[in-house]
Design brief:
This protein is mostly helical and 251 residues long. The chain has one domain. It is built from 14 helices and no strands. It is globular.
């Protein structure tokens, strides 16, 4: 655990000191603000059948930055280390591969969580400025942000695995983006293909991130999506460790 803590601090410092991290944070925060304004705009004209949380978390201004953010944060984790030749030094040090994977993932996940703080504040800004009552339920807001963070954990784990499989940051980013897009598009198959067997329908609903967000923004807290995302993150991180170990023994 001591080695993992040291590696975690090292990775978090590397993220904090990298100029690209601040550029990513600035762009992501601006896009969150634009998404919040876009979600509020329809309410100026007429009442809406969907709530503010659903408008904010299910539009393209949520999904596009989200799907671009994850590859951007993870593509350098292992690919850069291997390209610079420092991965071999790191793996020959008295640390376990598991410690390296957990430390890098944990540092990236902490930074990912911090990037959502401004969006959380945006959703409270209207009430603070106008003194009007909140336009969403606190429980729905907490459930939604909890789900977003759990979803982010699995998506970041996808990026970790992609980065461990190549020495090119660009290739790792493309692989991560492609895998996430495929995962999201697969969940949309049942409505596209028509009637399907009930077990298949349930499976696709189980992996449907858009449906999970829709339920969370409505205040429906279901434990199954959390189990799916967190267990998926664990399996993918284990696969990342296996991929690094395989390359370690081949070298």
């Amino acid at each position: 655990m001591q080695a993992a803590r040291i590696l975690f601090r090292r990775e978090l410092q590397a993220i904090a000191y990298a100029p690209g991290s601040h550029v990513v944070a600035a762009v992501f925060i601006v896009l969150q603000g634009v998404g919040y304004v876009a979600a509020l705009r329809p309410f100026l004209d007429s009442p809406q059948s969907r709530g503010l949380l659903e408008m904010f978390f299910q539009g393209p201004l949520f999904w596009i930055p989200f799907l671009v953010l994850v590859p951007t944060l993870t593509m350098r984790l292992f690919a850069e280390e291997r390209k610079m030749g420092t991965m071999e030094m790191l793996l020959t040090a008295p640390v376990r591969v598991r410690d390296v994977v957990v430390a890098k993932f944990a540092a990236t996940f902490v930074y990912f969580c911090l990037l959502w703080v401004p969006g959380f504040l945006f959703l409270h800004l209207h009430g603070w400025v106008s003194g009007a009552p909140p336009v969403f339920e606190t429980g729905a807001l907490l459930a939604t942000y909890g789900l977003v963070l759990a979803m982010g954990a699995m998506f970041l784990a996808v990026g970790c695995l992609a980065s461990a499989m190549t020495t090119s940051q660009l290739a790792a980013g493309i692989m991560t983006f492609g895998a996430l897009m495929l995962l999201i598009l697969l969940a949309q198959l049942p409505p596209t293909l028509g009637q399907m067997a009930d077990p298949v329908q349930r499976f696709f609903f189980y992996i449907n991130s858009d449906a999970h967000l829709r339920d969370a923004t409505a205040g429906l807290l279901d434990s199954r999506p959390f189990v799916y995302y967190l267990s998926g993150a664990g399996v993918l991180l284990a696969a990342t460790g296996y991929a690094l170990n395989a390359r370690r023994w081949r070298s």
